[in-house]
Specification:
This protein is an alpha/beta fold and 254 residues long. Helix content is 45%, strand content 14%. Strand 5 (97-103) and strand 6 (112-118) form a beta hairpin. It catalyses: L-proline + NAD(+) = (S)-1-pyrroline-5-carboxylate + NADH + 2 H(+); L-proline + NADP(+) = (S)-1-pyrroline-5-carboxylate + NADPH + 2 H(+).
Amino acid sequence: MLQGWMKHSSSFSSITVVTPHSSSLKEFQNHHQISWFSSPEHLKSNFDVIVFAVKPYQLSDVLPHYRQYVDSKTIVISIAAGKTLEFYRSYFAPQTLFVRAMPNTPSIVSKGIILLISSIKLQGNSGNQVQEIMEVLGKIFWLEDEELFDKAASLSSCGPGYVFHLVECFEKAAIELGLEQEIAQKLSRELFVGCGAYLENTAESAQKLRDQVTSPKGMTEAALKVLMGSNFQEIINKTLRAAYERAKEIRKEG
């Protein structure tokens, strides 16, 4: 996320990062808008927005250290998977504004999907702040139900992992077919990049586009008979279900 924000650094007056791992900030250490601290004890003031970008299991240890920096005007954003808005309420004052955000990896290049849900309806300056922070990372989707939020995250937030694995599979298949590794890798990557750009610029459904490139008795038809005959749709169904079930487990973990 920080990489994505720094591509639009003019949108922010300053960013303070708290992390014990200074090596993770190596490329930003000389950036005049970024301040770095190894622990929250060194912070000196409250903030307009605080973003928690830690693993879900770390939150119980991390959140108490930030109570003193949160007031009635602070927006608390977390990108931790699975943890509900109610979980955050137990650590801060009742009037605190919480936002769950779930960006995905393409946010680094401002082509991400960012799911958002808030503890109260955002209005005025608060809504504008969240919008400005997140829209530089990609397309924003506001949801009003946390069950739907976690279900959507099983597609959009986990999705890059699925897509990268598919690219990996195509690379390996092309190599097995006889292509050299370099050309197999380039063709596989450009295949997904090009199809993504095409989808972005057409209103046609994916099914309609598939039909358009599938000539009767052609190569694509022969290949799709194998793919669709292998219960591929059911595999995708189980994939998203597994991600969603894991989100439900995370809710119950400390």
